[in-house]
Each structure stands twice: as C-alpha cells, then as structure tokens.
C-alpha cells in the first residue's frame, strides 16, 4: 500500500475556507447565547465540541487507514483527499482508496448510540426519542461520488462507469439500521474490507497510477479577475462663444407700407346727339 499526499498549497486553501466557516458558526453560537459574557461561554462550548469531533473523527480514520495498510503495493491511499466540487470549491473525502478492484471514497462516522436511515433520511436515538440528523451521511457520500465521478471522467474518459463506490462506515455505533440508501452503509471495518475484496477487478495498474497522479497533482485554477471594459472616447465639448458685453438695442419694427389708392376710372365721354 502506498500513501500519497496532495500539495500543501491546496490543503492551505481548503483550511482557509474551513476557518472562515468555523468562525461564522462560532459567532452564531455566541449570538445564540445572547452575546457578551454568555456569548463567550457559548463560543467556548462550540470550540470544545469542534475539537472533540475532530479527535474522534481522526481516530476512526487512522484506525481504518491502518488496517488498509495491509493491502498490496499496487494500491494507493489518500487521507483527507480534496477533490473539486461545484463553483470552484473543494470537498474533502476521509479516505480515498484506489486499486484494481475500483475506487473507494470512504466516509467514516464515529457516531455512538443507535442510528436509523431510510432513503438518506437519518435519525439518532436520544433517550427514548428519535431525533432527525441534519446532515445525512449517505447524502454527503453520494455527493462525493458524484463530484469525483464528474471530475475524474473528464480527466480520464476511458474509465469504467461503475468503478466508483462511496461507502459510509459506522465503526463504533451501537446499532445501525439502513434501508434504501443511495450508498453502501457498513457497521464495521471488517465489513468494509470484505466489500472491497468482493468487488470485481475494474482497473489495471496503469489506470490506478493515472488516477493517483491526477489526485496528487490537482490544484485549483487561479480565479481570473474581471478586466475593466474600455470606456469610449468622448470628444471635448466646444466652448461656448463669448457673448457681446454690450446689450443689444431693440429696434422698432419697420412700418408696413400703406397700400396705394386705386386710380379712379376716367369718365366715358358722352356722345352728342345729331340735331
């Protein structure tokens, strides 16, 4: 088994996004407690839960990764692999395993107690009640599968269409009941290893190498800043002509010419009568 890592710059970019998200959630927790001194307590409780969940998650992931180390040398493992998602963002996969029997996007949930899932809707038992789970683990794993499939097939179109599996593993849960979920749901590390070895052989060693290389060398494309559009050239307005300082004198309108009198008609001469 080979364990590969992605670039530190890619990890740093993802961590920046996570820190912004956590900072926003911490502020929401503080406001929910009323701000001020109580808000500081609420933010502290939020921080404690974050650290506890990270420690529990890391322990579960490392334990499964340790068991996967027994796989042959032509298998490749990435821990906390980052793959492209929508709108230029990244999404994280707990364990990404690649070998002749396919690509496995493993989501590890170190949840305790009793859990029930039906058609990707999950509930967990708290006392005598079943409380809905806001973030469905199977929907999350299905999203990982869709994003990875869209990306890797654009890079290597010749891959088999059904070579990707995205199981969810609950290694320490007391009881798990799952029906009609979009991805496999497993309750132990033994079940995970058994599922992997029962899968048919999809990939050659060359394909395993190419897939691993694409994941290892993946980098986010730099975001291009929009260039300002050129403004049309404007011609300078002509300066107004200076007005005459002397006021213009008003002129009286010329009188209209009087019409000429019509000439009187001349009287006709009278004819003398013959005597």
UniProtKB/TrEMBL annotation:
<dbReference type="Pfam" id="PF08378">
    <property type="entry name" value="NERD"/>
</dbReference>
<feature type="domain" description="NERD">
    <location>
        <begin position="56"/>
        <end position="171"/>
    </location>
</feature>
<feature type="region of interest" description="Disordered">
    <location>
        <begin position="219"/>
        <end position="275"/>
    </location>
</feature>
<dbReference type="InterPro" id="IPR011528">
    <property type="entry name" value="NERD"/>
</dbReference>
<protein>
    <submittedName>
        <fullName>NERD domain protein</fullName>
    </submittedName>
</protein>
<feature type="compositionally biased region" description="Basic residues">
    <location>
        <begin position="258"/>
        <end position="275"/>
    </location>
</feature>
């Amino acid at each position: 088994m080979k364990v590969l890592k992605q670039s530190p710059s890619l990890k740093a970019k993802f961590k920046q996004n996570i820190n912004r998200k956590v900072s926003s959630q911490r502020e929401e927790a503080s406001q929910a407690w009323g701000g001020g001194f109580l808000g500081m307590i609420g933010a502290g409780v939020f921080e404690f839960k974050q650290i506890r969940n990270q420690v529990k998650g890391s322990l579960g992931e490392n334990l499964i990764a340790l068991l996967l180390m027994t796989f042959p040398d032509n298998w490749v493992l990435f821990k906390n692999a980052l793959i492209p998602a929508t709108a230029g963002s990244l999404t994280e996969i707990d364990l990404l395993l690649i070998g002749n029997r396919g690509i496995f996007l493993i989501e590890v949930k170190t949840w305790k107690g009793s859990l029930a899932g039906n058609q990707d809707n999950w509930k967990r038992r708290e006392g005598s009640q079943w409380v809905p789970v806001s973030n469905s683990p199977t929907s999350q794993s299905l999203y990982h599968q869709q994003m990875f499939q869209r990306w890797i097939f654009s890079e290597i179109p010749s891959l088999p269409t059904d070579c990707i599996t995205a199981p969810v593993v609950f290694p320490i849960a007391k009881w798990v009941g799952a029906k009609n979920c979009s991805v496999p749901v497993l309750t132990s590390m033994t079940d995970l290893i058994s599922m992997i070895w029962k899968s048919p052989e999809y990939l050659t060693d060359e394909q395993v190498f190419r897939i691993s290389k694409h994941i290892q060398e993946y980098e986010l494309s730099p975001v291009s800043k929009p260039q300002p559009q050129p403004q049309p050239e404007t011609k300078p307005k002509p300066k107004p002509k200076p007005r005459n300082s002397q006021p213009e004198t008003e002129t009286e309108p010329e009188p209209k010419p009087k019409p000429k009198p019509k000439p009187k008609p001349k009287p006709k001469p009278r004819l003398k009568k013959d005597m």
